[in-house]
Specification:
alpha/beta, Rossmann fold, 3 domains, 7-stranded parallel β-sheet, 19% strand
Length: 458
């Protein structure tokens, strides 16, 4: 089985949990004998491709194919004065050939362009009464930053156009698109190839923005889910949002929980903590979704009861400056540290010197970072509004808005030695059973059900 998979990032070039999840998933699928062609907007050459074939969209040569033919009277072999010429351009992509499109324009043009021309090309290919010729011309490549910048919508649209070319050139059985950024690419690949489309919902616009959601992003998400043959969500929490807020048929929405890559034996012995105080860590994007202000308020309350603790906010995001000002306003800057975005060994280092990890997310579809913390023997406090709370037993669960409960939990873990000892003893064993190969096995079964619906697997 071969899968054409569209993502937006791949380690080591990541900005959050999406790339980490895609990496673990592709390794798990390889373990289950599934070949994956993984497409990202921009590849750098230093990615781990031991379990996946990686394609950077910015390196894909874009071709302009022109089909010319003259069609005579059906049933005759000779051309007459009623004969008439046709010339059809199948794909024409390039910065000099097609202007940047808005998402709405892209969706409309892609639908009309691919649907009509695919049918026409099929007619040409099988028609015996036409004299035809095909020419192909490489017109260059499209440039992608692969970032979440101001031209993100342009890149999403162009990524989908390049996906048409990739789908035409590659051989595969199933299309798998991760998160809204790649849904238009998945749709384009489906309409070119006719293969079934799986969209993977790692987060929704309601998770990212609450009720003040971006209607353009919402429309892209909804069209991707509607076009998909199967929707995979990372938790039942997210599954309920997909069904209730996007109106998707429950019969085609399934939950497959995320997992975590196996960790090193014990990172705590590799790093030295240079402070005597306990360290309490928040690691994630500093955005509305992650609830950083609640973490800061809890820190303020804990510091009123004990000075033997320091707090770390590791990450970047649109609320970073606001949180720095908030820490100053609360008067806790001597005990509160900001590291900016961490990845790779820096994450391992941060967990190795942490005594408590807190994820106070307002809405978290899943949340891989608590698993990474538990893998490093760090007790975790997570919000009940997170998907990972559905699968973890050895974690303290609080409502994101209950700052008093969060502060009490932090105080207990940094003050009473028996409490964190219990979580360390059982937490790592629990998280080590959440393996990507098991999640990938479920995903492979869903692929099989799409391809061979009469042989439904449990």
């Amino acid at each position: 089985m071969r899968v054409l998979m569209f993502g937006w990032e791949f380690p080591p070039h990541i900005s959050g949990g999406l790339g980490t999840a895609c990496y673990g998933m592709t390794r798990g699928l390889a373990y289950n004998q599934v070949d994956v062609i993984f497409v990202v907007p921009k590849s750098y050459g230093d990615e781990d491709q031991s379990s996946v074939k990686l394609i950077g969209a910015s390196q894909v040569p874009i071709k302009r194919r022109t089909f010319s033919f003259t069609k005579g009277i059906p049933g005759t072999q000779e051309q007459t004065k009623e004969s008439y010429p046709y010339e059809i351009t199948y794909i024409e992509v390039g910065s000099n050939l097609i202007p940047y499109l808005s998402p709405e324009e892209f969706q409309k043009q892609t639908h009309e362009h691919l649907q009509s021309n695919t049918l026409t090309i099929k007619d040409i290919d099988i028609g015996q009464e036409a004299n035809s010729s095909v020419s192909s011309e490489v017109v260059g490549t499209l440039d992608f930053s692969g970032k979440y910048g101001s031209d993100l919508m342009q890149e999403v649209s162009n990524y989908a156009l390049v996906a048409s070319e990739i789908a035409h050139e590659q051989s595969f059985d199933v299309i798998h698109a991760h998160d809204w950024l790649t849904y238009p690419a998945g749709i384009a690949a489906k309409r070119i190839s006719g293969k079934p489309l799986v969209v993977h919902v790692h987060a929704t616009e309601f998770d990212r923005s609450g009720e003040n959601y971006n209607t353009v992003v919402y429309d892209i998400e909804k069209s991707g889910m509607e076009e998909a043959d199967l929707v995979i969500t990372v938790s039942n929490l997210t599954r309920n949002i997909v069904i209730s807020r996007y109106g998707i048929n429950p019969d085609k929405v399934v939950t497959v929980y995320n997992a975590v890559e196996p960790g090193k034996d014990d990172c705590h012995g590799l790093y030295v903590k240079h402070v005597d105080e306990k360290v309490v860590t928040f690691l994630g994007r500093i955005t509305y979704q992650k609830g950083p202000e609640y973490f800061m308020e809890a820190a303020h309350k804990v510091l009123k009861s004990t000075k033997n603790v320091r707090f770390v906010m590791a990450g970047s995001g649109d609320l970073l400056r606001k949180m720095i000002r908030y820490a100053a306003r609360l008067g806790i800057t001597e005990k509160f540290h900001f590291t900016d975005f961490l990845k790779g060994q820096d994450v391992d280092h941060m967990f190795a010197i942490s005594d408590v990890y807190v994820m106070p997310s307002v809405s978290e579809p899943f949340g891989i970072s608590p698993l990474e913390a538990m893998r490093s023997n760090v007790p975790v406090i997570i919000s009940k509004q997170s998907g990972v709370s559905e699968v973890l037993k050895h974690a303290i669960k609080i409502d994101f808005w209950d700052v008093d409960a969060m502060a009490d939990a932090i105080y207990g873990l940094v003050t009473y030695e028996a409490l964190p000892l219990m979580f360390r003893r059982y937490g790592r064993d629990e998280v080590n059973n959440l393996k990507w190969e098991n999640a990938a096995f479920q995903i492979k079964n869903h692929y099989t059900n799409l391809l061979y619906p009469s042989n439904t697997m449990l």
